[in-house]
Amino acid sequence: MGQLKDRFSFYQKERTVKEKFALVNQVEGVSGVEMVYPNELPASPAGGSDVAQVKDLLKKYNLRLTAVNVNLKGDPRWHQGALTSRDKATRQEAVQWLKQGMDIAAELGSFLVTVCPLADGYDYPFEIDYVRAWRDFIQAVRAAAEHRDDVRLSLEYKQSEPRARVMLSNASKSLYALSEIDRANVGVTLDMGHALYAGESCAEAVALLADAGKLFLVHGNDNYRNWDWDLIPGSVNLWDLIESTYYLHKMGYNGVITFDVFPARLDPVKTMEASLRMYRLAEALIDQIGMDTLAHSIESGDVLQTMALFQSYLEKR
To answer: At what angle do helices 238-250 and 202-211 cross, to 10 degrees?
Structure first.
């Protein structure tokens, strides 16, 4: 809802938090917002964040804060790593940011913090000690999680950017990290575009993470599997969206679907509305065919039968 940028240009105009909320209010069907700490949560003179303004805006527009997204990638202090920095003080500061995000989330009634640790990785061979970095990462996340049990901490994986290789790069590695961290309040944010970009089956990632009880948050978007373009979900890989939606229902996911899209050249309000319509379309298609019918067809192993179910419905439309 604010200004966007890539390596070459800036898009949209800069907007205050108040202006962003006013835009969100124009999106039909939206029920909440995910806000970035510290970028979108006003700083308090005493340190931390002044949440009074955000409380007022949430109440004014009848929205809820779905998650606090702690930004451990944008600030120059994280350029050599945040949770895996060679400098202990920097790692401790990154952990402190997560703790502050958890406190803010609790105060605003969200009780969910998500973080995409994109500064933690490497660009070249022989650049880092992989074991040291991995152990530091596990220890840092565990330290943050132990800050308070009532707030969940959700780790968002991604294959690359801004580092050529990011430490937490796929669903399998994320599940391994969770087993090492061993805290009930730590889980995973599944960004559909990140799964596609990593060459994963998005639906399989949904199923495995949910089966482990670790699917805490979902970001909906799309791409051409060659980069994290953050396009409208289902605009390129419609079948992946439909299958992922089926497994979200099958696995009983009751969390939030956040649309993490990049409306660089499009109207942001209309882009969010289009994202919501695409997800609702996938839900409607599954609902028309029926969860039980689909489950029975999948269990039979007859993929032609499953395809025929969708083909028959679409032909009728």
So the answer is: 20
Domain spans of the chain, in order of start: 4-268
Instruction: Say how far apart CA 74 and CA 118 lie, in whole Å.
Output: 9
Q: Are 208 and 175 in contact (CB under 8 A)?
A: yes
Nearest Cα residue to 207 out of 158, 256, 248: 248
Instruction: Judge whether residue 44 has pLDDT over 90.
Output: no
The DSSP output letter for 222 is: B
The pLDDT score that the predictor gives to residue 133 is: 98
Distances (CA, A) of 65 to 3, 15, 36, 68, 192: 20, 19, 11, 8, 21
Q: What is the largest CA-CA distance in the chain?
A: 63
Q: Tens digit of pLDDT for each residue in 246-266?
A: 999 999 999 999 999 999 999
- The CATH class that applies to domain 4-268 reads alpha beta
pTM above 0.85, yes or no: yes
Q: What is the dihedral of CA 95, 98, 99, 100, to 10 degrees?
A: 120
Comparing CA positions, the residue from 247, 241, 254, 253 lying closest to residue 298 is 247
Half-sphere exposure of 70 (CA within 13 A, CB side): 31
DSSP state of 259: E
Tell me, what DSSP letter sits at residue 187?
Answer: E
What tokens appear for 271 in the block?
């882009």
Q: What token pair was written down for 287?
A: 């609902």
Beta strands in the chain (DSSP E): 4-5, 10-11, 32-37, 64-70, 112-115, 121-122, 152-156, 165-166, 186-191, 215-220, 257-259
Output the CA torsion sign for 74, 78, 81, 83: negative
